Amino acid sequence: MSNYAKLVNGALAFAPASKNNTLGYNLETNKAQLLADGYKPVVNLENKEKYMDCEGIYSFHYEETDDAIKEIAVYHPYNYAQLRKKAYPDMSDLCDALVKLNSNDDSLKAEGQDQLDTYVQNCLNVKTKYPKQ
After folding, report:
1. What's residue 2's pLDDT?
2. Most CB atoms within 10 A, among 9, 11, 35, 83?
3. What is the chain's alpha carbon radius of gyration, rounded to the nearest angstrom?
């Protein structure tokens, strides 16, 4: 079944189920009258799950064309701060390294230093990958 609607201030206003004593006004069988009254078929995007991205998000809205109202996906990339926040290593790694560095055990201290060096390098890599804009 097709849906017919008008686009009013960016929102869909669907055709009513009945109009002027016509039941089933919004059905495909009444297509000619719907089109004459300014209603257009609504074409929704299929499989919205494919609109996934690790470095941004999608929003969806409708645009009117000559013969239909179509749902459109719009991509919004994250800014550098959002990308860095998602990419930085877990803070628990830093905390664990600091605890080891402040222990009285030389082997733990060496392990903590290696862990801290790795943590800092990972953070620097993120900063290089996502520079300030």
Report:
1. 65
2. 83
3. 28
Domain boundary assignment for the chain: 4-77, 80-129
Comparison of pLDDT for 1 and 2, the residue scoring more:
2
Count of CB atoms within 10 A of residue 110's CB?
Answer: 12
Cβ-in-10-Å burial (0-12, 13-18, 19+) of 66 comes to exposed
Six token digits for residue 55: 């470095």
- Range list of β-strands (E), 38-128: 40-43, 56-64, 69-77
**pLDDT digit string (tens) for 53-109?**
888 999 999 999 999 999 999 999 999 999 999 999 999 999 999 999 999 999 999
DSSP 48: G
